[in-house]
């Protein structure tokens, strides 16, 4: 999540240069955050790749570093989207169903992160081969969940934020 970009608490159509966009600041924040999350996907993948080659303390440290990066980059982004972007979409659509599936995906991602937190604790002891395989599978699952979610937001959310403020909402 960007520290230098200011996140307005309230949203609405604002003038952004010659063209009015529905949520210009939110569009910039979204693009910035998604670029950072793309880097995070690479971090998840590289952690999964090395997971079988590290001793338990080194793997615990690598996983801790990944989860700290996830906390820093992703968790605030999910909260922000729900309270600002999704709330705006739901309001304009007049139904919470507009973002229901995106919110459900956020919960899947959060649960996946929580499970990895438990894996860090379990690495106090040397893992079995089966436990390592399961850990790698959970890392790839999180990668898949996040990749698919990002792709869906690029289709469903980004055009909504880009639409001129006085044009019909693309729902
Ligand atoms: Fe999201
Ligand atoms: Fe997002």
In short:
With 171 residues, this protein is mainly α.
Question: What is the topology?
Answer:
Blueprint: E1 14-16, E2 19-21, H1 24-50, H2 56-93, H3 100-122, H4 129-156, H5 158-162
Antiparallel strand pairs: 1-2
Helix pairs in contact: 1-2, 1-4, 2-3, 3-4
The chain binds fe (ii) ion (2 copies).
One fe (ii) ion binds next to helix 2.
Write up this protein.
Helix 1 (about 25-50) packs antiparallel against helix 2 and helix 3 (about 100-120) packs antiparallel against helix 4. The protein has one domain (about 20-160): Up-down Bundle (Four Helix Bundle (Hemerythrin (Met), subunit A)), CATH 1.20.120. The protein has helices at about 25-50, 55-95, 100-120, 130-155, 160, and strands at about 15, 20. A hairpin with a 2-residue loop joins strand 1 (about 15) and strand 2. With about 170 residues, the protein is mostly helical. It is built from five helices and two strands, in the order ββααααα. The protein has a two-stranded antiparallel ribbon. The radius of gyration is 19 Å and the shape is elongated. Bound molecules: fe (ii) ion (2 copies). One fe (ii) ion (FE2) binds near residues 81 and 102.
